[in-house]
Amino acid sequence: MTRVSVTVDGVAYSDDVEPRLLLVQYLRERLGKIGTVIGCDTSNCGSCTVLMDGKSVKSCSVLTVQAEGAAVTTVEGLAAADGTLHPIQQAFHDKHALQCGFCTPGMMLGACDLLRENPNPSDEEVREGIEGNLCRCTGYQNIVAAVQAAGAAMSAQTATDAQASAGDPPAALIPAPNAVEASA
Could you tell me the pTM of the whole model? Predict the structure, then answer.
């Protein structure tokens, strides 16, 4: 067993894990983060995508021990503490960018990473940015529209935050609840 400390959705965890335990298994089985979907078990579909230190990773191809000291965000960690949806979640709802919902958590987190790097992507840039996430239902057009709408909403919020804070840095694109110690 190996001791690992990781922050997931703003909560700090410290657990003993088998060195071969995949991050997706840790998130689902130890922490109950079942929004992180196991799709293909080969890292092809992207359903298991999470953010690790702000970058999208396929959690079925990351060992939990590789996440030592990292901050991991799952789809459950996107919404604000009061339940207010993150702009990407709201845009997926508003633009009807999901059907069965199986790929949606991975799509949303992949889109968050894309929008962090490019807050105003073209259709082609969105398609390229989410190419590691497969959807078998939607045909992607509504997903592209949702990602662009979320980018616009996040840019508008960042501008509003910057004006309101009069020189303070703008709010992060992904809400980070206060870290709390927990053990699974």
Answer: 0.85
Distances (CA, A) of 58 to 21, 76, 94, 182: 14, 16, 26, 24
pLDDT tens per residue across all 184 residues of the chain: 999 999 999 999 999 999 999 999 999 999 999 999 998 878 889 999 999 999 999 999 999 999 999 999 999 999 999 999 999 999 999 999 988 888 999 999 999 999 999 999 999 999 999 998 888 888 899 999 999 999 999 998 877 777 777 555 555 555 444 445 565 5
Tell me the C-alpha distance between 53 and 97, whole Å: 26
CA-to-CA distance for 157 and 84, rounded, in angstroms?
Answer: 14
| Rounded Cα distance, 159 and 139, in Å | 32
Contact 14, 4 (CB under 8 A): yes
Q: What angle do CA 98, 11, 46 make, to 5 degrees?
A: 30
CA–CA separation, 143 and 130 (whole Å): 9
Please list the residues that pair with 52 across neighbouring strands: 55, 72
Q: Walk me through the domains of the chain, giving residue ranges and CATH numbers.
A: 2-78+176-182 (3.10.20.30), 87-165 (1.10.150.120)
Question: What number of other Cβ atoms are within 10 A of residue 83's Cβ?
Answer: 6
Instruction: Give the span between the Cα atoms of 134 and 128, in whole angstroms.
Output: 12
